[in-house]
Amino acid sequence: MLINLNWFQLKKVWRLTIPLQVVLIVFLFLFRSVQAFTIQTGLVSELPKFVIIFAPIYEEVIFRGLFLVIFLKYFNRNKAIFLSSVIFGLWHLKNLPHLSSFALLYQVSYAALFIGPILAYIATKTKTIWPGVILHYANNIIAPLFAII
Where are the domains of the chain? Predict the structure, then answer.
């Protein structure tokens, strides 16, 4: 099988038990939901709220659960992390209508060169996407504090 479905299963990682992961994901989802509906400036007010709320889940499924796992079948870990991170960064070009050129370049670079490799590394070490979902939510919650518009 080309895709390893084990990466989509919850399992204990470090001190994060399965129930604790579920609680964290639900809490962060609810917090992000409230944040998305209350912030009325910048990117958050212009994007559909469901995109902001579900992005950490579907982006981890796509970029770490699919692309990264496929790349790991054909390349070494470092190259697979690099390729999936670059594609993750390029994915953020979708925000072109919502951001200034500088802010877009910052977001694409940040996704490709910083958070993407961290999330991919965590996925390769834990063999599951869920700790990355938690970190992705945390990243997206604090990102508006450092937004470059």
Answer: 17-146
